[in-house]
Amino acid sequence: MTIAGGSLDQTPAFVRRELVAERPAPVPTTGALAWIRWRLLSSPTSILLTIVSALLLWYTLAPAVKFLLIDAVWQGNDRDACLADNVGRTVGACWPFVRAKLQQFMYGFYPQNQLWRVNLVFLLAIMLLIPLLIPRIPGKTLNACLFFLALPVVAFFLLYGGGIKGFGISWLVDLLEALCASVAEAGRRLRVTGGGIGWPGISQLLALLGLAIAGIGEGLLLLLTPLTWLRETLALSTHPVWYDLALTAGVICALVFGLSRSLRATAACLAVFAGIAGVIAALGLQRGGLPIVGTREWGGMLVTLVVSVTGIVASMPIGMALALGRRSQFPLIRAFSIIFIEFWRGVPLITVLFFATYMLPLFMPQGFGIDGMMRVLVGVALFSGAYNAEVIRGGLAAVPRGQGEAANALGLSYWKTTGLIVMPQALRHVIPGLVNSFIALFKDTTLVQIVAIFDLLGQLRASFADPNWATPSTLFTGFAFAGIIYFAFCFAMSRYSLFVEGRLNAHRRS
Questions:
Q1: Per DSSP, what are the bridge partners of residue 290?
Q2: Per DSSP, what are the bridge partners of residue 7?
Q3: Is the CB of residue 249 less than 8 Å from the CB of residue 169?
Q4: What contacts 24+ positions apart, CB below 8 Å, involve 92-96?
Q5: In whole angstroms, what is the distance from residue 452 CA to residue 467 CA?
Q6: Alpha-carbon gap, residue 178 to 123, rounded angstroms
Q7: Which residue has the higher pLDDT, 185 or 346?
Q8: Domains of the chain
Q9: Are 78 and 471 in contact (CB under 8 A)?
Q10: Residues 394-435: pLDDT tens digits?
């Protein structure tokens, strides 16, 4: 071929005469096979770990399922049903033992004819808790007031019994009067002791200090005069219980309105007392109250839930107050918060329970006593509050300083800045840590059995002494039953915390 006086070699063109072979299908990226391939068999290391994990599950879960379900005994009235027969049949879990002792596990030694009171408390708690946990249901303010304010009062009178005539104010005024009288008496004794030392400088100083302490005690007693009058009015009044309830509601709602200046909060307070009045009318508490059931008769799951829920709810405000106090600019408040947190974190919970049960009455005023369950609740709340304080302080440190500075620039006060801007962000950061503390507290309630309060695990251990159910598998069945209950509650708390965390951090998802 010649082009412009030259020649160009022409390469013969290649033309395919058959179809191209089909390519292999692409590797699937979705579905069960793809998940197994990429999650379990993606590399030699993954394959090895998968095999080891499968062997561990086989040697742990398989015997557990066999013991709890396959070889388990489901019917029977005594220990004979859970004993191996002459053939040598393997006997697994003895579930008739759990069915026979279920009432003891749930209620302890609560009188059987009064169990409806415990069931009613559980029902009220569930009815108020479920709407509080579902974000789409409205009326959270009223629901929270009913759950955190009204339910504890109603639950106490349902579980403990007795009348309600002036109980709360009488108990509070008695405690405050006893404490103030003890302060005044200590001041008078210090004055007499200091005056008898005979040292010129120290004697006058101690006498003056004793006089000041006695004056403080007497002044506090004078400040309690209105409450004392209210207590005596409620105690000596011949009016029905509705008069006492209306008087108490009026005083508390007036305080709420004076402190918050919010009509909504006052209306919520009135709604709480309206709910209490409805329960009083339904149960007939205005006619003398229910039979008293002492806390020593409580037990089982009832004690576990009472201690854990009270500790969780009460420890949150304690922890927030201590966390803010540790970051305070006032040296006295900061020092008190640090000492309080380090002290309660430095002692084990067993020591706290022993102190609250056996030594706390020694420090109380003479003639004034506190119920054993109340001592445990106070100790658990303070102990858990110290731990939550450090968790919340970590969340406060994670909030940028510019958030508070911007709120200050807008003219917000310290409390509004903390309550509306800083604290919500801090709590959002520490949801995993707080829920971890709640789960630990729920499991640590088993320690109350060392102070003669039998929770679920304590009742379980007490039931092993029954000779009618003494079999080789009874012990393992009981602990398996308790483990399933604890796992169900703890797993539910962890999953709900993940839901809340994802909902609050939805703006961070890309």
A1: 162
A2: 2
A3: no
A4: 92/66, 92/67, 92/68, 92/473, 93/67, 93/68, 93/69, 93/473, 93/476, 93/477, 93/480, 94/469, 94/471, 94/473, 94/474, 94/477, 95/477
A5: 22
A6: 38
A7: 346
A8: 32-70 (no CATH), 101-149+296-472+493-508 (1.10.3720.10), 167-287 (no CATH)
A9: no
A10: 999 988 888 888 988 888 888 888 888 888 889 888 999 999
Do residues 312 and 388 touch, judged by C-beta distance below 8 A? no
Summarised one tens digit per residue, pLDDT across range 455-498 is 888 888 888 888 888 888 888 898 999 999 999 999 999 999 98
DSSP H or E stretch at residue 6? strand 6-7
Which DSSP letter does residue 300 get? Answer: B
Q: How many CB atoms lie within 10 A of CB 167?
A: 18
Residue-wise over 324-334: b if at least 16 C-beta within 10 A, else e?
A: bbbeeeeeeee
Task: Read off the pLDDT of residues 29-85 as tens digits, 9 standing for 90 and up.
Answer: 677 777 787 778 878 888 899 899 999 989 888 888 888 888 888 888 888 878 766
Reference 324, options 333, 312, 332; nearest CA is 333
Look at the pTM and tell me if it is higher than 0.70.
Answer: yes
Do 306 and 158 meet the contact criterion of CB atoms below 8 Å apart?
A: no
Distance, C-alpha 256 to centroid of its chain: 25
Q: Which two tokens stand for residue 378?
A: 């106070």
Measured distance CA(488)–CA(44) in Å, rounded: 36
Contact status, residue 337 vs residue 325, Cβ threshold 8 Å: yes
Q: Under DSSP, is residue 352 helix (H, G, I), strand (E, B) or coil?
A: helix
Dihedral Cα 316, 319, 323, 329, nearest 10 deg: 100
* Strands (DSSP E) found in 158-233: none
- CA–CA gap between residue 275 and residue 293 (Å, rounded): 23
Angstrom CA distances, 261 to 150, 256, 257, 408, 445, stand at 21, 8, 5, 22, 39
Rg (CA), the chain: 33
Beta pairing partners, 73: 94
φ, ψ (nearest 5 deg) of residue 347: -120, 145
User: Helices in 93-166 by DSSP H: which ranges?
Assistant: 95-107, 115-133, 140-145, 151-159
Closest CA to 295 of 349, 227, 239, 357: 357
- Structure tokens of 453? 């309060």
> Is the separation of the CB atoms in 205 and 194 below 8 Å?
yes
